[in-house]
Design goal:
Bound molecules: zinc ion
Strand content: under 5%
Order of helices and strands: HHEEHEEHHHHHHHHHH
Distance between the termini: 45 Å
CATH class of the domain at 94-178: Mainly Alpha
CATH architecture of the domain at 94-178: Alpha Horseshoe
Number of helices: 13
CATH topology of the domain at 94-178: Serine Threonine Protein Phosphatase 5, Tetratricopeptide repeat
Structural class: mainly alpha
Length: 264
């Protein structure tokens, strides 16, 4: 075992402290607002984009909307809608921007670099250990989604031994930080374990954050008698509240124009 293996294990072990149900089932913070239109960002990945120029997450509506200069003339869309930096002209330029933001400890850039290592993308050779290190760093910098990716690594044994207990633990940390995919994973896990009440609680929280898989899961629980009709009504109402917060005409226009701008 190398030194960095030991370090990584220590880090994991000290983090594997028991999480109380009270902490686990608290409704986590929802997504932040888009910095341009001030409407809450959707949790669906295609509904927003991270900009490697300024580190902002911009909604699909604002990315798609036409840009105007000071004189009110339409300018081309090949610029960041927030800081107006031209979009990178090459892969190399894009990666350099990410690297620069990694140096600034931008959690999303750190996370993305980890993702490129895990996939062996953009000229990075596949390195799960490096990915795991970067995801731990991103998570500690406050990017909860990174814990979900760490959960997957342990769940499927990517470059590590399969460890379901660790996987669940990291899904829990991600879910508590507001990651709805991790929350849905936990619901599915508890359902498989036969803990229907806990599954229902997880699904409910994920739905408030816009996860439609969890909405279908509650419907299925309802059909098998593991949830009531009232539960499903409550779930639908909760999803409506979510939609009320994220819907905008501008985002609808973007979604109508391009499938990869779909936001719910
Ligand atoms: Zn926006
Ligand atoms: Zn920018």
């Amino acid at each position: 075992m190398s030194l960095s293996d030991t370090k990584l294990n220590d880090l994991n072990l000290c983090k594997l402290g028991k999480i109380s149900d009270e902490e686990l089932f608290k409704q986590p913070p929802l997504e932040e607002d888009c910095p341009i239109c001030f409407v809450r960002l959707p949790s669906l990945g295609t509904g927003s984009k991270y900009m490697s120029c300024c580190g902002k997450i911009i909604c699909s509506g604002c990315i798609h909307a036409p840009l105007y200069d000071n004189q009110g003339n339409k300018v081309d869309n090949k610029k960041c809608a927030f800081c107006r930096t031209p979009t990178p002209s090459s892969e190399k330029e894009m990666i350099n921007r990410y690297k620069k933001r990694v140096e600034m400890n931008d959690p999303i850039a750190v996370y993305s670099l980890g993702y490129y290592y895990s996939e062996g993308k953009y000229g990075f050779s596949r390195d799960y250990k490096k990915a795991l290190e970067l995801w731990h760093r991103a998570a500690e910098l406050g990017f909860a989604k990174a814990y979900n990716s760490i959960g997957y690594v342990y769940n499927y044994g990517q470059g590590v031994e399969v460890d379901k207990k660790k996987a669940v633990h990291y899904f829990e940390l991600a879910a508590m930080g507001g990651d709805v995919m991790a929350r849905n994973n936990l619901g599915t896990w508890e359902k498989r374990e036969g803990n229907m009440e806990r599954a229902l609680k997880h699904f409910m929280i994920a739905i408030r954050g816009g996860n439609t898989k969890s909405l279908n899961a509650i419907k299925a629980l309802c059909l098998t008698g593991n949830a009531t009709k009232d539960d499903y009504t409550k779930a639908l109402r909760s999803y409506q509240s979510y939609l009320g917060e994220i819907k905008s005409d501008q985002r609808d226009e973007a979604a109508a124009a391009r499938e990869n701008y779909r936001y719910y």
